[in-house]
């Protein structure tokens, strides 16, 4: 966050991944922020979503309203210039770093309010391992300095696939693998299909 309101904010995170029939992967990350501060400031957070290189951001919705995404102006000489005009739309920064695609944008949660942010994205198609296996791996980075928070993960796959191996703590029902737990540190999820 960019101010001291972080102390009063709780998070609830849900991530859903869908293996599509064509072999593509679609993801959706939802975060419910609750600012419990009565006398606190509005919570201003620069949210960064770190995804595999080549991931495409499909949409961002805030409180159910889809945002019109525009590239963020990140050059200080531009936005500090006298003739700068803020772009019309929701500014999202996209960078490639250390083999990852990172999307960043500002989220504001008013005091005593709740804000829901949902980012939808298309992941690169996974490559086959040993000619007939797919490996899905996720490293969830817990934001340093935040209290533990509830996290729900699910991965759905078509009837033509089956699971071979799951990380500890994952459960499966039909064509869906899931995890529900409180996150107190980084978490590794591996699924072989």
End-to-end CA span:
38 Å
Give the low-confidence spans: none
Q: Which percent range describes the beta-strand content? A: over 45%
Question: SS-based structural class?
Answer: mainly beta
What is the approximate shape? Answer: globular
Number of strands: 15
Q: What gyration radius follows from the Cα positions, in whole Å? A: 18 Å
The largest sheet is: 8 strands, mixed
Oligomer: single chain
* Strand order in the largest sheet: 5-4-9-2-1-11-14-13
Strand/helix succession: EEEEEEHEEEEEEEEE
Brief digest:
The chain is mainly beta and 193 residues long. It contains 1 helix and 15 strands, in the order E-E-E-E-E-E-H-E-E-E-E-E-E-E-E-E.
What does this structure look like?
With 193 residues, the protein is an all-beta fold. Strands 5-4-9-2-1-11-14-13 form an eight-stranded mixed β-sheet, with no helix packed on it. A four-stranded mixed β-sheet has the order 3-8-7-6, with no helix packed on it. The protein has a three-stranded antiparallel β-sheet with strand order 10-15-12, with no helix packed on it. Helix 1 links the parallel strand 6 and strand 7.
Features:
single chain; 193 residues; mainly beta; eight-stranded mixed β-sheet; 1 helix
List the helices and strands and how they pair.
Elements: E1 9-19, E2 25-35, E3 43-52, E4 56-62, E5 65-66, E6 69-71, H1 76-79, E7 90-97, E8 100-109, E9 114-123, E10 135-140, E11 149-156, E12 165-166, E13 171-173, E14 176-183, E15 187-192
Parallel strand pairs: 1-11, 6-7
Antiparallel strand pairs: 1-2, 2-9, 3-8, 4-5, 4-9, 7-8, 10-15, 11-14, 12-15, 13-14
